[in-house]
Amino acid sequence: MDYIRFDTPPAGEFQLAEGPDWKPYSYELEIKPGSVFDFSHLNDAPAGKYGPISITSAGHFEFEKKPGDPVRFYGVNLCFSANYPSKEQADRVADLLSRSGYNVVRFHHYDGGLLKKGGSSYEFDSAKLDQLDYFFAALKARGIYINIDLYTLRKFSPTEIPDLGKEISAKEFKALMPISDRAVEVFNLFAKNLLTHVNPYTKMTWASDPALVGICPVNEVSLLEFPANFKELNTLYEQAFAKWLATQPPAIAKDRPTAIMRFCVEIQQNLDVKLRTYLKSLGVVAPITGSNWKTAQMLSYLREDYEYVDNHMYWDHPEFTEKQWSLPFRFAQASATTFSASVPRGLFASRMLSQPYTISEFNYVCPNAYRAEGGLLMSAYASLQDWDGLYNFNYATSIEQLTESKRAGTFDLAVDPIGLLADRFGALIFRRRDIEPARKTIGFVMASEAVYAPGQRRAKEFSRNYTMLGLISRIGVAATSPDTKRSRAQADALVMDAPKSGFYDAESDLTASLMKDGILPTTAYQAGQGYQSDTGQIVLNTEKGTLKVVTDRMEGFVLSADAELSGKIVSVANDANFGTLYVVSVDGKPLAQSDRILVLHLTDSLNSQIRFADATRRLLLHYGSLPHLVRRGSVDVKFKLADTGKKVWKVWQVNPMGDRVKEQALQRQGGDLALHLETVLENETCLAYELVRE
Fold first, then answer.
1. Which domain covers residue 467, as residue numbers?
2. Gap between the Cα atoms of 533 and 335, Å rounded
3. At 302, phi and psi to the nearest 5?
4. How much is the pTM?
């Protein structure tokens, strides 16, 4: 279904301008202290006060000095110059991020900007390092932890790394590291200079600071495409592969494609050990991960050795039609809800059940018309799976996006009204554990014969049958080296914690088999009604394009055209356009007893004068300009909330800073409170409301 509907095929360019269905929406990137959007009370400052992060036997994070209390992280990425604010800006941004409900920030794509102009790839600009140090300290003081990569984009001269006889790009460097000792040496010099210097504002090295809670040495490295994507490196790789192949049994040499897969895993494993050993020798206390990209089964052989597992995935990531990272961009303009929660479902199986699992990059990308659903989809299913960290990519790409009004781009929450508000909701419900973890666990048992099956030309993925189980119960890789009795060409799903446990064929109709045997509830899947979590709190209907999440402290709804959904406290009837309704207790009490409730009614927003090839909005030609325009939408909502004594309910329109703007009429219908919400009003636009009993 398309968000913009039309009776005749689209013809010619589509340019958005203010009109009856799209009205200006302005906001400042601030949150008023104490307002309905101030979630800073979730943070226990300063970060690191309970010592370094450690890993529990159940595969979760906890602090060394606070055992038995699992920790969840929800935060954002900052990219490029956004990592280098002035001191005044750093304090303001740190306050903003804390009030937004975030307790972690990933410094990303910062490495190139840290370097001294004209210097080597490991010589730092002292002023830039000072800015980064101060920002680290400002975040730490507000209870916000730090996660970093040690390599993303910086380049290397032939003098530093002579292997290719030319300047080495990011992609080439990532591929070169597993087969070049010199590349590793140069990488280590950057790591040493950053991690062992003393931050003058914390009086600690980065390596020893417990506020640093995660390191991925090399971001998004993947050798799955060797040799196709490494044309300049083919000679070096063929030499290394031939040397490796000579040490293998003859049977492996007979099948070149699967032999290459085995080779790539082994050389990456060797590199991971080298990097991890070196970083620990520098005194690093933060857990270390790697291979944070892609979902192939064979990557589990790498991930089982990490202290925690990390991955990345996007919904409607732009497709580059002409030149990478340059317009025009192509988008699918589809709802993830109708695609069985494709993100996060695509990430379920690559989790290792024995280790913490984080997603350090995810985004429901602007200008996807359905991206408001991401705030609920991601946090709901991450909570069901009991993941340990979520990082939206990203909050800002430049310092200007944090300090000036800017038009929306593709990934930046700071300039996207819809993405920004949806993410605040997601942070609150995930960190507060409003949604129960699944009650059952179905682990995947890998078999080498299946992962490296003869004749494969591409790395094997997890079956869709298995990933669909993640909409119901907790899933992930349970073992990569099954007992020989279980080793066979087809891997197994292992029911791990149910009265009737055992092995099931992962390629079969798992859901039906598990329901038949009484392991999953019979309500887990019903044709026409969709998938219900084994907790009963999440119901996804892919056919109707709706999602309902109902818990004591929150109720959330993804609403297709004309959808009507009900929870325990809230019922909602949507108009003819896609929208979402998020209702959450702000004071932490159950909704039925709460005196302060946040309500978000989100549709879509775009820049003025944004241009697409046609009205389907699938090919973006020009970003447009300010002001932001919000799409008209309306819902009728009923709340089962009672007045108590002298306290009566009132509802206020609030702006994104949390300021109460205008009181809105609230009616009684029977025993319910009734509210009609519209994003576009006569002289204003509104996406958020505060219900208060006073």
1. 441-525
2. 20
3. -80, -45
4. 0.96
